[in-house]
Design brief:
Largest sheet: 7 strands, mixed
Radius of gyration: 22 Å
Number of helices: 12
Strand content: 15-25%
Distance between the termini: 32 Å
Bound molecules: flavin-adenine dinucleotide
Structural class: alpha+beta
Helix content: 25-40%
Oligomer: single chain
C-alpha cells in the first residue's frame, strides 16, 4: 500500500518485531509456498519422519522426497525470522510502523474518516482500517463480531535444547491413543542446536492439560526428547472462520465496508494441519490491493469487493480441505497407523499432495485401500458423518451471530 503511494501507519501492540509469538520454527506446505510469489528465506525439507502407533505397535517411518514438501521458517524477534524479513520489507517503504501501540477503539470521526484510538492515548485517522491483529482480534471485538470466530485448537510450542534432532530434521507424530484427533511435530533449527516441539490439540478431544500432553510427548519419544530442556514455551490458538463469516465491516461511511479483516483476524487458515502463514499473507495482499484501488480512485465503495474476492480466492480452498480434516478425525488409532505406513511407501503420491494441496482426491483412495482388510472400515462413512456433524454443530453458534 505504501509503495502504491498510500499513507500507511502500522500499530503493533508489542514493543518488538515478532508480535505475540515466541521463537519457534513453523512450516509452509509446498503448495502454499510455491504460490506466495514472495521470496521468504526458508529451508527446504525433502525428508520427513513419522512416528505413529503405541507400545508394541509403535512405528518410525521415513519418507524421502525428490523435491521439497515443506519450507521451514523461524518466527520471532531474531534477524533471521520471517517476522524480521517482513519488517525489513516494510522498512524500505514510507510506511510508519509504531511498536508498543495497542489498538483500543475505532469510531467514525466528524470528517467521515475512521478514528483509531490506542491504549496509550494515541489517535490516528484513516480512510481504511485493515485488521491484522490475530486470533483474538480486538478490532473484531470492538465491532461486535468476535462471536463469529471460534478457536478450533490450541497449540503448545516449546523451544528445546538437548533434543536428539539433526538440523532441519522434521518429524510428525500421530498417536490417537495418547492425543485423540491431535498431532505433534518436532523441527530441528536449521542453523542452531535447538528444536521446536509443537503440539496442536483439537479442543473437542482434549483429555488433559497442555503440560501433561507435552510430558506425554517426551515420554513417547525418550530417545529424542529424554535429555532435552525447555528454554521457552508458549501456547497459541488457531482458528477457522465459518464459510460465510464477515470479512469486512462498515463504520458508518455510507454503506462502505471500510474495515477489512486479514489473517487470523479474518479466520483465514488452511484447516488440514492449521497452516495459517500463507493464508495470512494472501488475504493481506487481497486487502491491500483492494485498498489501493479504492483510495487511489477516491472510490471507497470499491472496498466492498474485498470480501467476495477473498471468498473466491481463499475460502473455497479452505472449505474443500476441511473435509480432509474430518476424515483424519474419523480414523481410529489403528487405521491412522496403517494409512501412514501405506503412504510412507508411496512418497511420489505424498509429494503430489504437498505440491497441489489436493488432499481428499489423492489421500482418500489410499486410506480406503490401506484399510481394505479391516472390516471396521465399513463403519468409516458413519464415523465421518458423525464427526462432520458434531464439528459443524459445535461451530453453529458463530454462524448464527
Ligand atoms: C503453535 C502454533 C504453531 C503454528 N504453526 C504453523 C505452521 O507451521 N505453519 C503455518 O502456516 N501456520 C502455523 N501457525 C499459524 C500461524 O502462525 C498463524 O496463522 C499466523 O501467525 C497468522 O498471522 P496473523 O498476522 O493473522 O496473526 P499473528 O501472527 O498473531 O499477528 C497478529 C499481530 O497483531 C498484534 N496485535 C494483536 N492485538 C493487537 C492490538 N490490539 N493492537 C495492536 N497490535 C495487536 C500481535 O502482537 C501480533 O503481532 C501456527 C500457530 C500456532 C499457534
Amino acid at each position: 500500500m505504501a509503495r502504491a503511494g498510500l499513507d500507511v501507519t502500522v500499530l503493533e501492540k508489542k514493543k518488538m518485531i515478532g508480535g505475540s509469538f515466541s521463537e519457534n520454527m513453523e512450516a509452509f506446505p509446498e503448495y502454499h509456498y510455491s504460490r506466495l510469489d514472495l521470496p521468504i528465506p526458508s529451508k527446504p525439507v525433502k525428508e520427513v519422519k513419522i512416528f505413529c502407533g503405541d507400545g508394541a505397535q509403535k512405528q518410525r517411518l521415513i519418507i524421502h522426497f525428490q523435491s521439497p514438501v515443506f519450507r521451514l521458517v523461524k518466527r520471532g524477534t531474531s534477524p533471521d525470522s520471517i517476522d524480521s524479513y517482513l519488517f525489513q520489507r516494510v522498512s524500505k517503504t514510507s510506511a510508519n510502523v509504531l511498536f508498543g501501540e495497542r489498538f483500543d477503539k475505532a469510531r467514525r470521526g466528524i470528517d467521515g474518516r475512521i478514528e483509531v484510538l490506542t491504549s496509550s492515548g494515541g489517535s490516528f485517522k484513516c480512510k481504511v482500517l485493515v485488521a491484522a491483529d490475530g486470533v483474538f482480534s480486538s478490532v473484531r471485538k470492538v465491532l461486535g463480531m468476535a462471536r463469529s470466530q471460534k478457536t478450533e485448537g490450541v497449540g503448545f510450542i516449546a523451544k528445546v535444547e538437548g533434543a536428539q534432532l539433526a538440523h532441519s530434521e522434521t518429524i510428525g507424530i500421530f498417536n490417537y491413543s495418547r492425543w485423540p484427533g491431535s498431532y505433534c511435530y518436532l523441527i530441528g533449527y536449521p542453523e542452531e542446536d535447538y528444536a521446536t516441539a509443537g503440539m496442536t490439540i483439537r479442543s473437542p478431544y482434549a483429555n488433559s492439560n497442555l503440560r501433561k500432553y507435552f510430558d506425554s510427548l517426551v515420554d513417547y519419544l525418550p530417545d529424542i526428547l529424554g535429555g532435552s530442556r525447555v528454554v521457552e514455551s508458549m501456547r497459541g490458538f488457531v482458528t477457522l472462520g465459518m464459510r460465510n463469516r464477515p470479512l469486512s465491516a462498515g463504520l458508518g461511511l455510507g454503506g462502505v465496508q471500510n474495515v477489512l479483516f486479514v489473517g487470523e483476524a479474518g479466520g483465514f487458515q488452511d484447516p488440514t494441519l492449521a497452516f495459517g502463514l500463507a493464508p495470512a499473507l494472501a488475504s493481506a495482499r487481497l486487502a491491500a490491493t483492494t485498498a489501493v484501488q479504492a483510495v487511489s480512485k477516491n472510490n471507497l465503495p470499491l472496498l466492498n469487493e474485498y470480501a467476495p474476492w477473498a471468498r473466491r480466492e481463499l475460502i473455497r480452498d479452505e472449505t474443500r480441505r476441511i473435509s480432509f480434516r474430518y476424515i483424519l478425525e474419523s480414523m481410529t488409532e489403528n487405521e491412522m497407523s496403517t494409512f501412514l505406513s501405506y503412504i510412507a511407501g508411496r512418497p511420489e503420491k505424498v509429494e503430489k499432495v504437498m505440491r497441489t494441496g489436493e488432499y481428499v482426491y489423492n489421500f482418500l483412495p489410499m486410506i480406503l485401500r490401506s484399510a481394505a482388510r479391516n472390516p471396521k472400515l465399513l463403519t468409516f462413512p458413519f464415523r465421518f458423518a458423525k464427526v462432520s456433524r458434531s464439528l459443524k454443530s459445535r461451530r453453529m453458534p458463530s454462524q448464527r451471530s
